[in-house]
Prior knowledge:
Blueprint: E1 2-4, H1 10-21, E2 26-30, E3 39-41, E4 57-61, H2 68-84, E5 89-95, H3 105-116, E6 121-127, H4 131-138, E7 140-141, E8 144-145, E9 153-154, H5 159-171, E10 179-183, E11 189-190, H6 191-197, E12 201-202, H7 207-215, H8 223-235, H9 245-250, H10 258-271
Parallel strand pairs: 1-2, 1-4, 2-3, 4-5, 5-6, 6-10, 8-12
Antiparallel strand pairs: 7-8, 9-11
Residues 5-12, 30-31, 42-45, 61-64, 74, 93, 127, 129-130, 133, 159 line the site of NADP nicotinamide-adenine-dinucleotide phosphate (NAP).
Organism: Cryobacterium suzukii
Domain NAD(P)-binding: 6-170
InterPro entries: NAD(P)-bd_dom, NAD(P)-bd_dom_sf, NmrA-type_oxidoreductase
Amino acid sequence: MILVTGASGQLGRAIVERLAGENQPVIAGTRRPVEGSEQRRVNFDEPGSLDFTGFTTVVVVSAGYAEDDVVIARHENVVAAAERDGVQHLIYTSIATDGDHLGFALAHRWTEQRIQGSTLRWTILRNGLYAELFGSLLAPTDGVVTAPFGTGSVAVVTRADLAEAAAIVAAAPERHINRVYDLVGSNTISAGQIAEEAGLLYRPASLGSRRAALDESGLLPFQPAMLLSIYSSAAHGFLSRTTTDLGDLLGRRPTVPGPTVRRVLEKQQVAA
Ligand SMILES: NC(=O)c1ccc[n+]([C@@H]2O[C@H](COP(=O)([O-])OP(=O)(O)OC[C@H]3O[C@@H](n4cnc5c(N)ncnc54)[C@H](OP(=O)(O)O)[C@@H]3O)[C@@H](O)[C@H]2O)c1
């Protein structure tokens, strides 16, 4: 039996759907399960909710969106519970190798080390930047994209491809024991290229002006720095590394991400 955590989130839900579609025995782990469904309560912040008895494979979708100490404590709880309850294989969704300069890299790398030093068999899926997130960070104003991506190119990937890759690994974990996959694109795209394709101007602002805007936007205290680290990493060439790992796992070419990025960008124009 396979357990997928974060199953109400976008990535976790897509992994569960893929596995269920292939008639794999899967249970959705979520903080707020719907009664009477194939769901199980799983909240990494509450060790008492972590009972993995009977699950051979657990797909741990990272639970970010918090300060490092909070994320690390969450992930410690989930790995310790998997060890205690006799899980055979833990699959963890991490961040791309090229993402070491991202503000949330430390918690991911800590978690990878914790898993690799555990008693479990494991597979680390180093997920690249979502095409959906890249599109949302382009945020045009009056037909102009000012996001501070400079001339940097990014090897973005669609969330659906990453979900499919995770489901493939979870369905046959014995083929992926103690492997690290760098699931970034096999090509790159840039903010300027996407803006041009969408018929918009691209005039990248400075990191400082974007930080000032983010500081005033009501985000949680840790969020502006994390978002800035995405812009800065991309602008300075740290998210441009391509690999063939994703295509190799999928057994096909990864989805071309441009249309997904443009769709998200165009939605923001409509909303603005
Ligand atoms: N590669 C990228 O570009 C990128 C971008 C953004 C985030 N991420 C990371 O990838 C993860 C999955 O992405 P996503 O798009 O699915 O994000 P999402 O839609 O925001 O879903 C995140 C899910 O994480 C789960 N979660 C949060 N706190 C938790 C806790 N204390 N215990 C257990 N689960 C918890 C929740 O699942 P339930 O609601 O089911 O409890 C939540 O819905 C994120 O959590 C983040 O760590 C990656």
